[in-house]
Amino acid sequence: MGLIRAVFDASFRQGSARLKPVGPRWPLLLFHVDTGGCGGCGMELEALAAGGYDMQGAGFGFASTPQGADVLLITGALTYAMAPVLEAAWKAMPTPKGVICVGNCAIDGGLFPENYTIMGGLNRKVHINLRIKGCPPTPQEVLDGLCSLFGQRAPAAAYAGASSSSTSS
Amino acid sequence: MDVVAHIHAGQPTETPWRFQLDEMAWRDLVEGLKHDSLPFVGLWCDGVAVHALFMPHGTQPLAASLMLEGGRYPALSPARAVSSLYERMIFDLYGAEAMWATDVRPLVDHDVWAETMPLAAAPGGAGSNKTMLTFQPSEAMQAAGGVTAGSGPASGGRESPLHIALALDGDVIRYAETVTGYAHRGMAQRLKTCRVEDANRLTGRYVAGACAAHQAAFCQAVEAACGESMGPEVSLLRVVVLELERVSTHLFTLAGIARQAGAVLVASRCMWFREKLLTEAAPIIGSRLMMDHCVPGGVNLRTAAAMGELCSKLAELGEEIYPDLVTLWQSYPGLSSRLVGLGVVDSALLEQVGLDGPVARAGGGDCDYRRDMRAYDGLWRFTSGRHDGAVEDRAIILLEEVGESLRMLNTAGPKLGLSAGGRIDLYYEDGEGIGMAEGPWGAVLYWVRLKDGRVEHAFVRDPAYSSLLALEAVLPGQNVADLGLIRASLGVTASALDG
After folding, report:
1. Domain NADH-quinone oxidoreductase subunit D: where (chain B) (predicted)?
2. Which chain B positions have a beta carbon within 8 Å of A118's beta carbon?
C-alpha cells in the first residue's frame, strides 16, 4: 500500500477556514472501513450510532461513501486484501481529511500481528490523527475519543451507570 | 451402505471416535454419503492428513481421517455441498488438492499474501497482485447474463468486509456470488503450536457476536483433551454468559433488520434494550461482548458472586421491556409486510447446505444443540413455532429466542446464588478433544489436538460457511434493495467465514 499522508486540518473546527468546496464542516462525517478483524469494533460503532449515545448531538455522523466523508475511521488489523480498498477509499475522500484508528487491531494489529495475510495495523505506516485503544473500546470510549479531537467532553449516555471507565468491551 | 459402520470399520486411532481410512475406503465414504443423511460438521487438514467430522447422534462425534497422498485427496463436496468451502480453504492454506471437487475457486488467497500455501511444508512465494481484487465470475454467473453490480467490501456500514457480486435484471437479482478472504487473519496458523491461554484469547476474537460461544467450545475441547469436565456451577455460569451473548447478538441483528426495513423506531428500541442489558451486565461480567470469560478449566468473571443477582436483574429488565418490544415489532405499520416472503430458506435448502441455528429453526429445522447439553438441563425447552423460512420468520424466531434466553437467566439466577465460579488448573496432556456450544447463529465446534502443553492443531466449525451458501442460493429472484436485509437475517459474517 502506498503511503497515506493524512493531514488533519484545523478546518475541522467550527469557524476556521474551510478548504472543502461544499458542505459545512459540522457534523464531522466518518467513513468506516473494517480492514479485517473480528467485527467487535464495528458492533460497538453500531451501538454508538444507533444506541442512546447522542453521537449526532456531539457533532459526528457516518458517511455512506468516502466522497462525502471527512475522516477515514478504520477498524481491524489490515489485511493485504483490504489495503488497496483502504487506499482507494482514502483517495476518493476530499481534502482536508484525516485518519482515526479504533481498536488495538487497527493501531498495531492487537492480537493479530503481522503474518502472511496481515500487515499489523497502521501504526508507523501512515499518519494517524487519533488512536482509540481497546479490544474493542466501548461506544462511550469511542465517543470520548472523537470529542477529544475538539477538546470537548462527550455528552452523557442515556443509560444509567454507563461511563467511559466502567468496563472494556 | 451404512456410512457410520463404514467409518467404524477403519483403523482405530488414539482418539476413540476417529478412524483412519485408506483412499479406497474414503472414496466409498463419499459415495455412501450421497445416499445417507449423516450430519456433516466439517473437513480440515493438518498438513499430513485430512479429517472429516460427522455428528451421528446429538453431540457424539465421529471422524474419518485420510493420509494425503501426493498432496491430494478425494473431495467430499460431491456429497456435501458445504464441504467445498472447507476444500477451498485447505487448498489455499496447504496446497492440498481435492479431487473431483465441485468448486475450485480460491476462497481466501487472492494472490495478495506475503506467501502462498502458508501452512504447507514448503510455502510458496509472495502473491503478485498488489491492487484491488478483481472479481472473476463463474461460468454460471456469466450464463446468467444481465447487468453486473456489486456490494462491499467497504460499504461504509459497520459490517465486516465481504464482496457480493450480482447479476441484475433491472432491480431483480438473477445470480449472486461472493468473494471472501478480505478479513482472513490466519487463524489456523496462529492457533498452531500456540499456548493454550493465548489460543483461547484468539478464539474469543474469531467473530464478534459469538465470542463466548467460540471460547466455550474451545475450552470444552481443551478440557475434553485433558480428560476433565467442568462442575455444574462453572457450566451454569458459562450458560449465563452464552445466553446473555445470544440476547445481545439477536437484539443487534433485529435492530439491523428493522433499520433496513425502514422501521427506525423499532431498530432504535432494540438497540436501547440491548444497551440497558449490557449496562447492567458489563460491570459484573467484565466486558460488553463477552470476551475472555470462558477460560480453560473454568470461568473468569469480574464479580462472579454477583452473577446470580445479575441474572435476576436482567430478567426483571426483560419483564419490563421485552413484552412492549414484541408488541411494537408485531404492530409496527408495514414492518411485517415488508419482511414476509423475503429470502426464503426452505427445508430442502437447509439440508443441502447443512445449516443449523435460528435460520434453520425458522425454516422448520429441529436443531438446537442446547437440548443435548447437560448444562442446559432444566433450562432449555423447545419453542420454535415459525417454519416458513422467510426473513419475517427468522426475525420472529430471534425475538422469541431473546425472550426464552431471558427466561433461562431468570431460572439460572436463584440456582447460582453466590456461586464463586473460579477455575481449576489443567494439566495439558497430549490428546484430542472436541467441544461444542450453541452460538447465536448455530453450533460452534472446536476440535483441538494438544501436544507438549500447547495447541498443536485446531479446527473451527462456525455456521457461517453454510450461511454463505444459503445467501448465494436465496438471492436470485430477490430485489436488490433487500440484499442487506437478507444478509443480516442470515448472519453472514466475513470474520467467521475468513478465519
Report:
1. 262-414
2. 185-186
| pLDDT score, position B35 | 92
Half-sphere exposure of B366 (CA within 13 A, CB side): 5
What does the pLDDT look like over A147-157, one tens digit per residue? 988 776 666 66
**Triad B43, B484, B386: Cα angle to 5°:** 75
Is B313 an interface residue toward A (CB < 8 Å)? Answer: no
State the smallest CA–CA distance between residue A117 and chain B in angstroms. 5
**Radius of gyration (Cα) for chain A, nearest Å?**
15
Q: Which residues contact B319 (CB under 8 A, 6 or more apart)?
A: none
Chain A residues within 8 A of B130 when measuring between CB atoms: 84
Instruction: Count interface pairs A-B at CB distance under 8 A.
Output: 184
Return the pLDDT at B128.
84
Looking up residue A136, the CATH number of its domain turns out to be 3.40.50.12280
Q: How far apart are CA A159 and CA B103, in angstroms?
A: 50
A21 inside domain: no
Counting residues of chain B whose pLDDT is more than 70, the rounded percentage is 99
- Whether B308 contacts B413, CB under 8 Å: yes
Question: What is the pLDDT confidence band of residue A158, given thresholds at 50, 70 and 90?
Answer: low
Contact (CB<8Å) A82/B115: no
Instruction: Inform me whether the C-beta atom of residue A85 falls under 8 Å from chain B C-beta atoms.
Output: yes
CA distance A135 to chain B (A): 9
Distance from CA of B415 to the nearest CA of A (A): 26
Touching check for B420 and chain A: CB below 8 Å? no
Pairing relationship of beta strands B294-295 and B194-195 according to DSSP bridges: unpaired
Q: Is residue A133 part of a domain?
A: yes
| Residue ranges covered by each domain of chain B | 3-99, 187-490
Decide if A155 is inside a domain.
no
CATH topology of domain B187-490: Cytochrome-c3 Hydrogenase; chain B (1.10.645)
Question: What is the separation of C-alpha B481 from the centre of its chain, rounded to a whole number of angstroms?
Answer: 26
Residue ranges of chain B with pLDDT lower than 70?
A: 1, 382-384
- Quick check: A39 and B287 CB within 8 A? no
Third-level CATH fold of B3-99: Beta Polymerase; domain 2 (3.30.460)
Instruction: Provide the pLDDT for residue B293.
Output: 93
Tell me, rounded to whole angstroms, the distance of Cα A11 from its chain centroid: 18
Per-residue model confidence as pLDDT tens digits over B427-445: 888 999 999 999 999 999 9
A113 prior amide bond cis, ω within 30:
no
Task: Say how many domains are in chain A.
Answer: 1
Beta bridge partners of B169: B172
Residue A132 lies in a domain: yes
Q: What is the pLDDT of residue A159?
A: 60
Enumerate the residues of chain B whose CB falls inside 8 A of the CB of residue A67: none
Of B201, B271, B302, Cβ closest to residue A47 = B271
Interface with B, mutate which of A3, A38, A111 (most B CBs under 10 A): A38
How high is the pLDDT of residue B368?
86
Q: Report chain B residues whose CB lies below 8 A from the CB of A3.
A: none
* Interface ipTM > 0.90: yes
What was the pLDDT predicted at B383?
A: 66
